[in-house]
Amino acid sequence: MKARLKWVDGVCFLGESGSGHAVVMDGAPEGGGRNLGPRPMELLLLGTAGCTSYDVITILKKSRQQVSDCWVEIEAERAEEEPKVFTRIHFHFVVSGRDLKADAVERAIRLSAEKYCSASIMLGKTADISHDFELRDA
Question: Which positions carry the signal peptide feature in this UniProt record (predicted)?
Answer without folding.
Answer: none
